[in-house]
# Entry
Amino acid sequence: MTSRSVPEYRVTLPKELVADLARQAAGLPEWRLGNDGLLSPETAARYHAVLAGLPRLAEFTTTCHQLLGAPDGEGFAVFELAALLDAAESEEAGLRAVTALLSLIATPLRAFDNWPLWKPLGTNLATTPMHINVVNSTLPPDYIAQLCLRPDPRGQGHSLVSQVRRAMDRLGYADAELLTHPKYVEGSFFELTGVGEERQPFPILDGLPPSEGFVRFTAKMFADTDPADPYIKAARALERELITGKRRFLLGRGDLLIANQHLCCHGREALGGGQEDVPEDERLLLLQIFLRGQARHTATPEVMA
# Structure
């Protein structure tokens, strides 16, 4: 399915799938959400009915499972969807087509009540430190996906992904043991749906297998902390390993980054200099969506089988 072997996480959709999906996009309904913040079963069923029978669709889902779900893999993928966005009759139709494709992998989730299902991320000029999303909940989203509609015209704003389980394996025992204690705090918790209850303070390492648990890391938690605190020092040691193992790449227009939060942390580097001379509507624009694993709408999450 991929048109080139390196890097293996980048995947191009087959032309025949793009053409048929673009033709079907206009017939896809607008998404509706349930009270649990998830894409409604009725909308998901209609998406699946429209997509059923499209050429090489099973190949797409198999590729997603292989790249995102393998415990010893990287846990992320970048799908090149510019051709799909170009072929759709409107940006809205193209976004519905992308949402329909994602619904085959996991269920789209609006975790923040005041956000749209696809939240724009384009106005932050600074670095986004390495993290998983909604780290202070009992049930963080299983996946995040980011769709690039406009790259940074200054050629910066690289995306970062790091395999957090592999980073944990490189830590010494003493640091890893400290990370199992509920000593970490980050952010507020309100107007959230579909992510369980507040978990704060939280441990970074919950002791569950990768298919169920999370490594609740976020570099944002270091604000106003004592660098001599042994728990903070252990978290900094994990951060160093994440930086050592990070993958760094630019997203182009139409690139869709999907990351498994059970296996990966993600972030973004700062945009290029001279942004004050770039109109805001020409700066980097990413749209972000959360996904809930199919088997885990109300229980402890599971990665795709």
